[in-house]
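Quick one: structure tokens for this chain, please?
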Amino acid sequence: MADVKEKNQYFWYLAWALIIVGALFAGMEASKDKGPQLSWRRVAMDGHRIGAKSVTLENVNTALGVFDSLGYVAPSGARYDIDSPVANIASMLMEAQPRMASLKTVVGHSDGMYMNLRTQPDLPLGNLFADALKDAGSAYFGVPMDFALTNFGGIRCPLPLGAVTLEDVSSMFPFKNYMCYARMKGSSLTALLEQLAGTKAFQAVSGCRVVCKGGKLVSAEVGGKPIDPDRIYNVTTVDFLLDGGDKINIGALSEKVTLSHVLLKDVMLNYVKSMEAAGKVLHAASDGRVVMED
């Protein structure tokens, strides 16, 4: 019994020794200099540090500051040595401006800034572009389009308020996605809409009105009429959505697909220019074409 008692005592001595050593080691680690502790926060890219502004046709000579014999003078009046990082970046931006001048050409005007909020199914900007895509498809392929579908993710930035430049349109559609034409049976079109009903964003559409509830398609009309499962519908869409883009496979649902060499950027650009030529300002709105209820 004495041997067992001594062993138990040794065990507890050892356990306490390990605890003490561990505490001392932890204290030593905590006391070490670990260098500067960093924290992060978001800062708007508004040029608040040196006063730089987004370059337009009107301010190209002043937006980024100037260089003189002593170095770089920022729009805020702050001066930087010629070899400083700020001066080097300013120099690169200034050298690029002549090559970017054509992108500053004003091609139209908008009555508001329209955002691309993917969680809003009846999105004004998506509606505007889907309508433009449907009209462009009818004109290009020579048949009246019944329906158009494009993806919100293909519209990468807002349509600005006021003057709309070529750069704005190019930035909205930076990808090489092309317009295409799909002939689709009504039953397949309904299957496509049922798939979209199960998503949060639905995607941007034209020529239809759909009502969804709880992720299910409740009703769908194309051209103001219920979808005929046996009728062939003319659909304008994007090649990105033909074979798995955003998990959509329009190609597999179609009787025939015809591709084009028309970029989505050019669809939007032609629409903006046509509105400007007609003396019209761009306007987008939600109109109830997609209703999604919980």
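The chain has a mean pLDDT of 87.
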